[in-house]
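Residues pack. Consider this:
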Amino acid sequence: MTVTEVAQPTPGKGRWIGEWRPDDPAFWEGSGKGVARRNLIFSIFAEHLGFTLWTVWSIVAVKMGAYKFSTDQLFWIVSLPNLVGSALRIPYTFAPAKFGGRNWTVVSALLLLIPAALLAVAVSNPDTPFWAFLVIAATAGFGGGNFASSMANITYFYPQSRQGAALGLNAAGGNIGVSSVQLVMPLVIGGLGLAAAGLFWVPFILAAAAGAYFFMDNLSSAKADPRQMAKAAGRAQTWIMSILYIGTFGSFIGYSTAFPLLIKSQFPEHASLITLAFLGPLVGSLIRPVGGWLSDRLGGATVTFWNFAAMIAAVLLVWRGLSGHAFVLFFASYMLLIGTAGVGNGSTYRMIPAIFRAKAVAGLEAGTPEYEEAVRAGKRDAAAAIGFISAIGAFGGFFINRGFGSSIAATGGAGAAIAAFAAFYAACFAITWFCYMRTAGVRSASSLAAARV
């Protein structure tokens, strides 16, 4: 069988590819690269829509003045998709291997019709109760789970040497969905009404499902073992990195979705500037690769360590802007805060494989069969840990929105929440130093891990 024949879907078998060898240079250059790129393109499209539906309530909530809900209630509506989406990331991680990446992308895209349609129905009825809005907002969590399945699926298509770039594009394409929904929805709602915030996405969802059905593939070689993730969940390093990822990705998604409602509640005289809220997640998404780039040169732990210091400074500047009711300072410092969260996304994600590789090869001599086997074991452990860490880290989006809502309900302002966030970043700063930075002269994340864990 030729390279080209192996790389193409098997006719009549539901677009299943029976053999896939991306790490074989001849196979990859022959036709594997083209198949992988095609799957990546449609994966990004579907994942982007997942993020838009996941975060659409961040804009809808600020347009619900007719319902007379309190600010705390509105923050509940915004936060529940984050909670559900975070929990769904664990089962979604295994879905591509279980059902096929192409098959699951079709299903996960079509599931987005549920929150889109229910949103339109709910806001069309002025008598819709608060509890119904909570249930309907929770269904938007389907979009949050898409990230895990999309990343897991694309991992199988690319060789080890090219996974970083491919996964980076896939992640960025999804993250920018937060920005696009906050840019487009105010215009759509202003022109077509609040129900359009759900109906607008229906043709795009159908297009994503159709694109996945006709142009994506399933890989028979894709394997996922829930026991491997359970094993990873029992390791201290998995939980340490989960805490740090709450501080980075959790902050990114939390601050991005809270931004419009925070502007409306704390600066009502500037409510017209809510349309600028999209700049926060846009900056946080685009700057994420910078965190990975800096980590390659300075070490993931070093970048993460100093980035948490920057996040402490940024969140204190946000507090200064809020307490002094200085909108320009608040807006600029909030943008800085989301930007540093984006840098941290890249640096913490970079740390995970380096740490598990270092743990696996500790004490072994490079070039030996034992060393090579340990490297492979470290990759498996890192892959399992990443699925778990990405799920736990996403819960930060729920905590941040609930922090703002509870603080405003109790004190009338966001100061108490800001103090809690600053304390948490200080704890992450200390954890990073204690676990990975105490050995002087060690610069790379892998070397730090080898020395300390």
